[in-house]
Amino acid sequence: MKRYHLLLALLAAALLSGCTIAYAQGARVSKTIDPLVLTNDQRLAVAVALRAGEVRVTTTPSDELQATLTYDTPLARPNCRVENNGALVNFAIAPSAHAKRGALRGQEHQADLYLPQHALQALSIRLDAGQVSLDLHDADLNNVDARVGAGELLLDLRGTHSRDMTVAVATGLGTATVLLPADMNIEIVSERALGQIDYDGLSPAGREVSATAPTLTLTVLRGIGQTTLRLDD
Question: Which CATH number fits the domain that encloses residue 27?
Answer without folding.
Answer: 2.160.20
